[in-house]
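Thread: Newbie trying to understand structure tokens

Hi all, I'm a second-year student working on a class project, and my supervisor (Dr. K.) asked me to get a predicted structure for one chain before our next meeting. I've only ever worked with sequences, so writing a 3D structure as a token string is new to me. If someone could post the tokens and maybe explain what I'm looking at, I'd be very grateful. Here's the chain:
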Amino acid sequence: MRELVRPSRLAPGARVAVVAPSGPVPEERLQAGLDVLRGWDLDPVVAPHVLDRHGAFDYLAGTDADRAADLQTTWCDPAVDAVLCARGGYGVQRMTDLLDWEAMRAAGPKVFVGFSDITALHEAFANRLGLVTLHGPMAAGIDFIKNARAQEHLRATLFAPETVRTIASGGTALVPGRARGVTLGGCLCLLAAELGTPHARSSARGGLLCLEDVGEETYRLDRYLTQLLRAGWLDGVRGVLLGSWERCEPYEKVRALLLDRLGGLGVPVVEEFGFGHCEGALTIPFGVTAELDADAGTLTLTEPALL
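---
Reply by user tm_fold:
Sure, no problem. This is what the structure looks like when written as tokens:
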């Protein structure tokens, strides 16, 4: 697990592109998110197909080719400083093979933000582009639009990353201890689904693994974790940060499973770290070296997430 290249922070007037690589985007929420970005003195532009809906599969924001074209075009546009996803849902895995990764690598580093289904792109950006990405609120997400903590933590990360070198979540130790490694992770079901694909990393070895999910029954969470364990993907992981488990079964049941599946790794595990599908979600940079203190509930970055 190597530390990745950090993009430059944003400054007032920076142009940010909004794309929809997964599910369809409600127009009123998109407009509200654009207003937030303008209030940060940013210049948001909307990719052409963000408000599209696939003709046959209404859970997709337009065709695979159009969603891929939006992402690639905005990423390769030298006038764009950051690319923000509008929402998650489902669809990234259908379009990642359509991207020209050589062209995207040649475009150079820039900020990329998203979570949930965007986990597959976090993995691809790390594996194919070698870039730090931000696991954080999305431009048309309820949390981004309405929650002050989520907004301010993302804003600080984008504009003044040195002010959020230590992320204090209020989380508690499921397994006590301290560990140092490179951050990675995202939505548990997507990490399991990415196993064996050409854009995913082969292992979390040397990493501080961030896990969360939404709307899953406990037996399905068990299946995902067991798949990662059986595949050897968790071998050598240095520590685990557990985020939200919104709309899953009662947390005590989920907690027992997490301890059962992860407690035997012999590494620190912190629970309720406050990222993912939860109110006031924190922004977690992926691809940076950090130290986890499970007892204190803190993640301290060795360097700011962005240059």
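A couple of things are worth pointing out once you decode it. The CA atoms of residues 119 and 191 lie 7 Å apart. The radius of gyration is 18 Å. Feel free to ask follow-ups in this thread.
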